[in-house]
Amino acid sequence: MTLTLTPLIDIPLIRQGDDLAEILIAGLDSTKLTLENDDILVLAQKIVSKAEGRMVNLVDVRPGERAISLAAKSDKDARVVELMLQESRDVLRVRAGTIIVEHRLGFICANAGIDHSNVGSPKGSTGDATDDWVLLLPRDPDASCEAIRKKILSKTGKRIGVMIIDSHGRAWRIGTVGVCIGLSGIPGVVDERGWKDLFDYTLRITMVGVADELAAAASLVMGQAAEGTPAVHVRGFPYPLREGSLQELIRPKEQDLFR
């Protein structure tokens, strides 16, 4: 098995309303890659959020009492905390510099995935400092992936998978890693229960988070700072492609032993 990850070149800075499918097809051409069936495109969350207009100007945010209280405990901007509350189902932990939430999409993350880095300001905006703008996660990342995948199929005739990734921290481990926050046309989890190992032992509990494994690999290629490589082409994914969703990767609350 050979797994090949190739960053797409010449991806421009994304603005609201940009057609990501067209941009990705052009990026493939610039990178001298021809799509094949079962290829996968992995996208950084930021370009999807920007294309979908998920930028918010903090000047327009009015924090409520709860946001102001949590901001004092966490040493954060109360306006950003107000957006965290709007984007979350529940607040789980608060400490200086960090608020851990259950995001409305179902996963646990820091600061509701709201980001200041590599955001800039929207096209056509005037008089606003770059620091006044923050970026929220896509409203429905699975649907975003599905729309991009269908348009690429209509343009190229190739059946591929599409995944959106973001950087998350992990309990008990230092450092962020790439994780899947949306997918279409690829499995989130592969259930290996019933498979045989090298010694003919039948696996009983093994379920592999293959989308997160691929997300981490793609994140290495993208980088985390100013690398400017927000899209990665993948060939050789070692599992059959199928319809999938983010919910495969979310542990049900009744199985969560750490809350």
Structural features, described:
The protein has helices at 20-30, 45-51, 65-74, 78-86, 141-156, 210-222; strands at 4-7, 40-44, 55-57, 88-95, 98-103, 108-110, 133-135, 161-170, 173-184, 190-191, 207-208, 231-235. It is built from six helices and twelve strands. It is an alpha+beta fold. Helix 1 (20-30) packs across helix 5 (141-156) and helix 3 (65-74) crosses helix 4 (78-86). The radius of gyration is 19 Å and the shape is globular. It folds into two domains: 4-53 and 138-246, CofE-like (60s Ribosomal Protein L30, Chain: A), CATH 3.30.1330; 55-135, CofE-like fold (Alpha-Beta Complex), CATH 3.90.1660. Helix content is 25%, strand content 24%. The model has no long low-confidence stretch (mean pLDDT 90). It has a five-stranded mixed sheet. It has a three-stranded antiparallel sheet with strand order 4-5-6. Strands 3-7 form a two-stranded antiparallel ribbon.
Keywords:
259 residues; alpha+beta; 60s Ribosomal Protein L30, Chain: A; CofE-like fold; 2 domains; five-stranded mixed beta sheet; three-stranded antiparallel beta sheet; 6 helices; 25% helix; globular
